[in-house]
Amino acid sequence: MAEAILVPQVGQDLTEAKVVELHVKLGDQVKKGDLVAVVESEKASFEVEAFCEGTVISLPWQVGDTATVLEPLMHVGAPGETVAEAARSAAAEPAVVPAVAPAAQPEAAQVAQAEPLVAKVATGVVNAALRASPIARRVAAGQGLDLARIAGSGPKGAVVLKDVAALAVGGAPTTGGGALELRTLQAGQGTPVVFIHGFGADLSSWRPLVARIGLGSPMMALDLPGHGGSRGHGAADFAGLVGAVGQTLRGLQGSVHLVGHSLGAAVAVALTQRGDLDVRSLTLIAPAGLGASVDGAFVEGFLGAKSEAALAAWMRRLVSDPATLAPVLVRATLAAREDADLVPAQSRVARGVFEGSTQLFSAAAALRSYQGPCTVIAGRDDAIVPLREIEAALPGHVALHRLDRVGHLPQVEAADLVQTLIARTVRSAG
Fold it and tell me: Using CA atoms, how far apart are residues 422 and 212, in angstroms rounded to an integer?
């Protein structure tokens, strides 16, 4: 019998939520606990998990739509079942509202519910009707920006962080244009922890890890140029990636802790030499940029895969034990490629940073110069970036954790340990 997965109510008085990610498409098989979507209000983002097993037979909302809460986000039923049959089932039996995992809780939930949404900017103007997320208000105030003059892209036109960041860097020269997609995955107090994904991924890949780290700091993630919400950014070589990320993070106006994976780890290291960012700590997971080698066959095969079977075959090279590669990760990667611009954008980046099986960049000198707390986490079975080259490049003051039976995705294959090491590194910075 078909069941509806409803749009969750993401705030006490909110009736709408923006669909920002869909991890399934019509005909996909889902099982209980699979991440199927992410929805966003003006205050928080929430992950929606499947509470039942079956085939996706209806997707009334698409990414970018503003959906009505407690209405069906999708229907899950038997192969060949129709939406009309699902509707009859829903009328006969109340649908279950899915449990949602908070990806970015309000900064002060009780206060936010008690107080009207008010933006105060440097001009002294107060507009009680203006909609903006808490972090967008804080960053705008710190930069002296008038929220009333910023076009919002969030639900009901709310101003969100990427809108403020785009304005903050709008007058600066860029190699590709504009700010990168930057989201708050978990609100908190103090210095933000910013996560930078590796080649071929996007910021949503950090959500399962962030949800369990246990730090009270703000947790943020961005999409590299050519990836996710930043796929339209034109930066395509390593210097361009570093410049684009640096410009985006400069909008935060303050210190940051950086956590990077693979190519994102190399970008994180290079950011320490810009001179305009105070990087309090580095956690580098399977870092690129410390040696010359990369699995060029993987890069080519990954970009060329067009079916779920082919993509899964290449993505298994990322892990030591193929059983640890969740099918939902493969399906989500394939679903993202329904945007025809994504693979060409990633291919452009690949040509700028790799040549065959060679990395065209190095972050080794920057790592030697960095004197803050730094932890490197690498798998002994990494087939993408060889552990031996990472070991050879590390200066003595960097802590290296070599993980047995782990490949290029320690954050997936040894998630508990990686969470502990990130928290330890951040706390060690004081």
Answer: 11
Phi-psi region for residue 373, left (φ > 0), alpha (ψ -120 to 50) or beta?
A: beta
Q: Which two tokens stand for residue 288?
A: 């690129």
The overall average pLDDT reported for the chain is 82
Report the alpha-carbon distance of residue 282 to residue 247 in Å, rounded: 18
- Six token digits for residue 260: 């990077």
Q: Left, alpha or beta for 375 (phi > 0: left; psi -120 to 50: alpha)?
A: beta
Which residue in this structure is represented by tokens 């920057």? 366
By the 8 A CB rule, do 367 and 399 touch? no
pLDDT at 143: 60
* Cα-Cα end-to-end distance for the chain: 54
In percent, the amount of the chain with pLDDT more than 70 equals: 77
Task: Please name the helix (run of DSSP H) or strand (run of DSSP E) that holds residue 149, with its range, or none.
Answer: none
Q: DSSP readout, 184-227?
A: EEE--SSSPEEEE--TT--GGGGHHHHTTT---S-EEEEPPTTS
Q: DSSP labels for 231-270?
A: TT----SHHHHHHHHHHHHHTT-SEEEEEEETHHHHHHHH
Say how far apart CA 246 and CA 75 lie, in whole Å. 42
Please answer whether residues 288 and 174 qualify as being in contact, where contact means their C-beta atoms are separated by less than 8 angstroms. Answer: no
CB 314 within 8 A of CB 298: yes
- Which single residue is written with the structure tokens 């066959």? 297
Q: Which two tokens stand for residue 21?
A: 């990610």
Q: What does the pLDDT read at residue 15?
A: 72
Domains and CATH numbers, the chain: 3-102 (2.40.50.100), 105-168 (4.10.320.10), 177-430 (3.40.50.1820)
Give this prediction's pTM.
0.68
Please state, in angstroms and rounded to a whole number, the distance separating the CA atoms of residues 27 and 54.
Answer: 9
Cα distance between residue 430 and residue 426, in whole Å: 8
Judge whether residue 96 has pLDDT over 50. Answer: no
Neighbours of 83 (CB within 10 A): 16
Q: Is residue 388 predicted with pLDDT exceeding 90?
A: yes
Say how far apart CA 86 and CA 28 lie, in whole Å: 16
Report the candidate in 11, 44, 64 with the shortest Cα–Cα distance to residue 160. Answer: 44
pLDDT for position 157: 67
- C-alpha closest to that of 238 among 260, 261, 268, 258: 268
Rg (CA), the chain: 21
- Give the residue from 238, 247, 246 showing the smallest Cα distance to 289: 238
